Amino acid sequence: MRRHQGDNQRRRHSSHNAYQQNHSTKVAPSVTRWLLPVVSRHLGIKTRRQQELFLVGCIAVILVLWFLTPLSDYCATLILYTVPIESDVALGRKALLSLERKYPRVHDRWGVTRIGSELVNAGTFSKRDPSYRQRQLQQNPNLFDNIEIYEWDFGVVKAPTDMVNAFALPGGIVRVTDSLLKTLHLTDAELAALLGHEMGHILYRHSQKRTIKNHLLSTIWEAFSYEDNDGYSESFGEAVAEGLWKSASFLGELAFSRSDEYQADEAAWDLLASTYSTEVRRKLDARQFHPKSVKSLLSKLWKYQGGSGSTSWESTHPGTKDRIDALQKKWNTLDPLTRRRFV
Hints:
Blueprint: H1 2-43, H2 48-68, H3 71-81, H4 87-102, E1 105-106, H5 112-126, H6 130-136, E2 153-157, E3 166-169, E4 173-177, H7 178-184, H8 188-203, H9 206-214, H10 216-224, H11 236-246, H12 258-274, H13 278-283, H14 293-304, H15 312-316, H16 320-332, H17 336-341
Parallel strand pairs: 2-4
Antiparallel strand pairs: 1-2, 3-4
Helix pairs in contact: 3-9, 4-11, 5-8, 8-12, 8-14, 10-11, 14-16
């Protein structure tokens, strides 16, 4: 009796395996067999060989567009627009826990917190100055829109001597390594440029964009299929934010792209220029930081790197030499009246 039952189970098991094997071999090619002939008829493709070449060509075009054009950046940016700004603060706080386990916070004897606060205040007040927005923020008039939403937190962390770097976490958290401060001996204006650069990464939400871009397909799939059984139906953007939460521990040391760096440099320039705003000078008793200090900062970093671009800073902030040239070109293109404002 037991042998008979075992024979039946083996037959059912073998028939189930046969079904799975036949099903898996048929389903995958079925899409290709159905789709290719339809497309081929519209395009006048007749032979099987031409169909295969067409398919390979389509894949090649998609890969070229994805890796050699800004297409992937545009897709990541569009998805990021759906993610609530308010979620950035909680995301940054979680990322900070991971970062400070590796690099503990130390006493700030360089004035990082004070200078950072001055930049936040300058950006906040200058966005209320219509003449400044029209004159200075032509490329990105909405740069400072989120500056009051974030919970800005500036500080110094202890790191190995070769860790000359700074970290920008979502929601307004900036950390500078003591190694950078001890090595580069920055002026207050250059330190303001460094903090302004990291603030630029935060205001442009570069960490979130890089994370989405690196896991674009899985991000979309998980957002559409997200379910946490809490009785609340999350929007697509809220579901993406939940996915970013899972990657929080890696946000502190993400490598930014060259385009991210150029944007952050522009933000630093505008933040330092905002200290010259009429509204800032009228409402705040604060110092002015010359925007050319961004170029001065990068020049110090490039000199420290020995002109090779092989340091921890360059590993997460690429393109230092090209960015120096771009900032000099930006200064050269300013009209004489604008230049005189910064004297």
